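Q: Could you predict the 3D structure of DeoR/GlpR family DNA-binding transcription regulator?
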Amino acid sequence: MDAEERRRELLKVVQTRKSVGLDELVEHLGVSRMTVHRDLDLLAARGLLRKQRGGASAESSLLFESNFHYRQEVHQPEKIALAKAAARLIEPGHVIMLDDSTTTLQICEEIKDIENVTVITNSLAVCEKLRARPDTQLVLAGGNYNDTLEAFYGLLCEQTLRKLRADWTFMSAPSVIGTCLYHQDQEVVRIKRAMMEAAGKSVMLLDAAKFRTRALTQFAELTEFDHIFIDRQIDPAAARSLQQAGITFELV
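A: Sure. Here are the predicted structure tokens for DeoR/GlpR family DNA-binding transcription regulator:
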């Protein structure tokens, strides 16, 4: 494994077992104690785990789960599949909005061969992905920068988004309860609502884990979205509940 692969594996072990000793990590990864110490320091600095005497433990708070680096590490195959499915809606010349989610971030990889796409976003990660692409027009809605979420929020960001118009808005949510979408941060909720109001059509991308988590603030109903893409690993009971509620969605 290279360094990044090793850190992903280390993080996976800690997330799965919740608490792991240093010697166990050394044996599992086949590297020195010093290397594991360095990896733990890096991952702890990113907010992905808590380094403690003799090992590491997983965080579990809502603040931790909203951490951009944490979200970027989990459910990657599902997010890529969802992004591929959603990107089929995008045509040359379209104007799209991408929120700050790590699921819609994957759409950046899927629009490489689509000419003259304009992307409006509040996400610094999206900006980094697209800033060097000559065929992509990039519009960054600035405002108050949040380092934990790696995106911009606040009144200036909202006002900018409300003055723009897009063909599509693509977004995700950390929690689905019944047919409602929730987020733990009211600042993020306001930006998502502004994006939905600024677009002709809205698209929701959800991996199966979103149906097992809880957050504080409702920001939308699934019925408000023109297309809904859901990871096919969704619990069958949850899928049946959506169908019974009249929600149309595509399993990916």
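Q: Anything worth pointing out?
A: Residues 3-17 form the longest helix (15 residues).
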